[in-house]
Amino acid sequence: MPIRVSLVQLGKGAVGSALVDQVAARRAALRDRLGVDLVYAGIAGRKTATFSPSGLDLARWRVALGDGAGMDGRLLFKEAARALRGPSILVDATAEEDMTSLYCEAIEAGFHVVSCNKKPLSGPLRDYQQVKETCRRQRRFWLYEVTVGAGLPVIGTLRDLVDSGDRVEAIEGCFSGTLNFLCASLDRGDRFSETVARARDLGYTEPDPREDLSGTDVARKTLILAREAGHSIEPGEVEVSPFWRVDLAGEPAGFVTAAAAHDGEIAGRWREAEARGLRWRYVARVNGGCQAALREVPADGPFGRLVGPENIFTFRTARYDSHPLTVSGPGAGPAVTAAGVFADILRVGRAIGRTS
Ligand SMILES: NC(=O)c1ccc[n+]([C@@H]2O[C@H](COP(=O)([O-])OP(=O)(O)OC[C@H]3O[C@@H](n4cnc5c(N)ncnc54)[C@H](OP(=O)(O)O)[C@@H]3O)[C@@H](O)[C@H]2O)c1
Hints:
- The protein is of the alpha/beta class.
- 42% of the residues lie in helices and 21% in strands.
- It contains 13 helices and 12 strands.
- It has helices at residues 14-34, 61-66, 73-83, 100-108, 125-138, 155-163, 177-187, 192-201, 210-213, 216-228, 252-258, 263-275, 334-355, and strands spanning 3-10, 36-44, 49-51, 88-92, 112-115, 142-143, 168-174, 239-240, 278-287, 289-298, 310-317, 325-330.
- A 6-stranded mixed beta sheet has the order 3-2-1-4-5-6, sandwiched between helices.
- A hairpin with a 7-residue loop joins strand 11 and strand 12 (325-330).
- It is globular.
- NADP nicotinamide-adenine-dinucleotide phosphate binds at residues 10-16, 44-47, 72-74, 93-96, 116-118, 146, 150, 203-204, 206-207, 332-334, 337.
């Protein structure tokens, strides 16, 4: 008999929807391959949720959500915690603030947690440490590979380096698929405002694209990596310069329209760099502290050659000294991100399968 693992998912946007469809397509095969049956018990958006302790019919989950009860993810979780028995995973595919108390509640109730959401990992250190400590005490997983580099194996690589006793001197690279997509599109002469809209339509941006443009999203990633490497850093200590100045007042949609006012100025900066054999890239560095800023880099170097939503992470360590360990590839997009979340769910599933 396969072991049942219940999934309760908050968020049904670009990543959340792709994940449900990927799990639906693989569920039967995974029952045979891993002996684990991934059963969606609940899915919630901001205002609607669908819940069935015996398992949702994934062929019609969108319809069920449309007809669903008027509750958000937090209420769905409370219902699930009351009704579910056996191994369960809370999947956070939102970009909500203040999730750490919900995570702790879930872990205390016996859930494992898989996050796409960077905010619970990059808020006050005390909150982050509280979730980690609750996991240790309850012997539960909190996995969040996609919070840095989407589907790329960045956090797992860093964790293996640290756990195996390597000393991480510096991590440097381009950590934002959205910002790299903008930089590479501007290299080709595309308009800034149109490119921001395209990045949003392709599902690369944060739910609010100003979080990308302000550098806030990359700042969160640097903090996640720094903490994973063992540094106790607070959000206020990250030195971040915006990709471009953004007005945080008003709705995100208004910002995308207003971006056209900057098209000429940005195109001029890009042309000027190109004339000197350089390209603009949004470069981040973690080396005890955290920094992120738009920098000129050689056009034919590893950062300048990145195209589309590609990321690059170079790890310079005691062992990887003269030649850094490099992880590179697409660092944004619903399909690759959902696949990364799926991989975290499978890590939990395999561990449950081994111990049951
Ligand atoms: N897109 C990428 O390439 C990528 C890569 C790595 C990580 N991520 C992370 O993945 C997360 C989701 O990104 P996305 O692109 O899928 O964003 P999205 O399309 O805007 O989806 C966000 C979802 O969160 C839901 N939500 C908000 N508050 C909620 C609540 N209280 N309870 C339940 N659901 C709630 C929204 O519900 P409604 O549908 O009702 O509005 C929406 O379905 C973000 O944290 C993002 O940083 C994304």
